Amino acid sequence: MTLRVMLVDDQMLIRQGIKSLLQLSGLIEVVAEAQDGSTVVELVQQHQPDVILLDLCMPKVDGVATLELLKQQQLKTPVLILTTFEEHDLVLKSIQLGAKGYLLKDVSLESLVAAIQTLQQGGTCFQSSITERLLSGLSPVSHFPRPATIEALSEKELQILQLMASGYANKEIASALYKSEGTIKNQISSILAKLGVRDRTRAVLLALELGLIH
């Protein structure tokens, strides 16, 4: 099955290059393009792409603002950030706004195609070098959980972690799992304590790095 992708990047040459490479793979069709986020909502509704490839640094409506627009409109198309920027704040903000993947533009075509396929199937894909740098900046290595602690995560807690990685809010997780929002908040607090982190974003990053979720 050919996957439908939308490209959002302010540089025409970059868009043309990525489009040509993706179409050479024989697995991807680029169905829409935009030079910033100002038309993304309209184009997504019109073309129904399977995945959006989104740059962060763009004039007018940048990548972060585009993620905010997609979230406001409750559009669920998975977004893969494809950029040259790897600042901690940008990565964390992108995850908080629902991005399902984050890759640098120096990735191979094979890795990019695999990431698009992963997102289309409901998974997440974050370049390992980015998550490693983020985690090393969040906590000393000696504070990382021991394997015994990680094994203490229950199947239900792993399920909640996966939903958190997919951008679900507490209320949405509660609805999906037929639990009260209070119960979910308590379980998330337990997850944070077991992983030794202080917020949801860091929990997701660490879980991705450790291979607990995908």
TrEMBL record:
The modification 4-aspartylphosphate is found at residue 55. It comes from the Bacteria. GO terms for molecular function: DNA binding. Residues 4-120 form the Response regulatory domain. InterPro entries: CheY-like_superfamily, NreC/VraR/RcsB-like_REC, Sig_transdc_resp-reg_C-effctor, Sig_transdc_resp-reg_receiver, Tscrpt_reg_LuxR_C, WalR-like. The keyword Lyase does not apply. Keywords: DNA-binding, Phosphoprotein, Transcription, Transcription regulation. CDD domains: LuxR_C_like (cd06170), REC_NarL-like (cd17535). Residues 146-211 form the HTH luxR-type domain. GO terms for biological process: phosphorelay signal transduction system; regulation of DNA-templated transcription. Pfam families: GerE, Response_reg. Transmembrane segments: none annotated. SMART domains: HTH_LUXR, REC. This is DNA-binding response regulator.
